Amino acid sequence: MQTSTEDAVVMNKTASPLPASKDKATDQLTMTINSLEDGKAEDIVTIDLEGKSSLGDYMIVASGRSHRHVSSIADKLAKQIREAGFGRPRVEGTDTNDWVLVDAGSIIVHIFRPEVREFYNIEKMWLAARPEDNSALDFEDEPSKD
Fold first, then answer.
1. What is the CA radius of gyration of the chain?
2. Quick check: helix, strand or coil at residue 50?
């Protein structure tokens, strides 16, 4: 009989993405980019999330030419992630296939139709420089406290 810890490990392998070390995340990143390229995804942008977010290690933004193409890219990617042993990714947005999110734990993939990607422009937000500590800023428009 398995202990509760063993049950949790077995459950994690089938229910959700597995947490990854940086090396494993890099391997997963390579596999993910290869899958996107094989699926003819366009304008693939990789964003390193280190120091920006604890959501994962990398975010990838890519485009598909149509609803069907976006769906095909996402389905193929999710299947390859499972088959490579990186866990079971969560997939959202397949009802419309305008914007599909594939959450593979250490890697988050956004697959858009071009017009939707242009509208949301999420890579601009995530590629922006991280704001430094703003506590020393001098706000001239702030009323004085005299």
1. 19
2. coil
**CA gap 100, 73 in Å, rounded:** 9
Closest listed residue to residue 35, CA positions, set 81, 97, 82:
81
H or E segment and range at residue 100: strand 99-103
Taking only the tens place, the pLDDT of each residue in 109-145 is 999 999 999 999 888 877 766 555 444 444 455 555 5
Residue 90: Cβ within 10 Å count: 15
CB 37 within 8 A of CB 67: no
Q: Report how far residue 57's alpha carbon sits from residue 35's, in angstroms, rounded to the nearest whole number.
A: 18
pTM of the model: 0.72
Residue-wise pLDDT for 94-103, tens only, equals 999 999 999 9
* Structural domains of the chain ordered from first start: 19-127 (3.30.460.10)
Distance CA 138, CA 146 (A): 16
E strand or H helix that includes residue 138: none
- Please count the other Cβ atoms lying within 10 Å of the Cβ belonging to residue 92: 11
